[in-house]
Amino acid sequence: MERRKFLKSSCNICLLAATGYFISELAACSPAAYHIINTEIINDEIQIPVSSFTKSAMQFVRPKGWYYDIAVQKKADNTYEALLMQCTHQDNQLTATGNGYTCSLHGSQFDKNGKVTKGPAENPLKHYSTSVDQQNIIIHIKS
Ligand code: FES
Fold this sequence. Notes:
CATH superfamily of the largest domain: Rieske [2Fe-2S] iron-sulphur domain
Helix content: 10-25%
CATH architecture of the largest domain: 3-layer Sandwich
Radius of gyration: 20 Å
Order of helices and strands: HEEEEEEEEEEE
Shape: extended
Bound molecules: FE2/S2 (inorganic) cluster
Strand order of the largest sheet: 1-3-4-5-10-11-2
């Protein structure tokens, strides 16, 4: 193969590989990269099955008609923590990271408990109290 053809075909292969890589990276960055449980609020409560947490200690709930998701985390003591994924700086929807939440608008970061770890946000995320019955985790919206 002559040198010019070899370089051209090599560059095309590199370009295809890079395109595939960046598309997969973009998909991983989107808020829809995690599974969302769509649900309704009934009597100021959201119920999600306890069985949702068999494979993962973190689930994301999207109440019907709400813009923001709720992150629900199972803790080591078998209680659950529910946090509204609304940045406390200027209300942007947050994105979950491996160990907390980040805001794409101005870079605020929050830990898994909703505490600010990097500004400009100054206030922690909104918490909702939770309780558990035999089959469901109940998120109390008016708490
Ligand atoms: S809206 Fe989140 S950091 Fe500004």
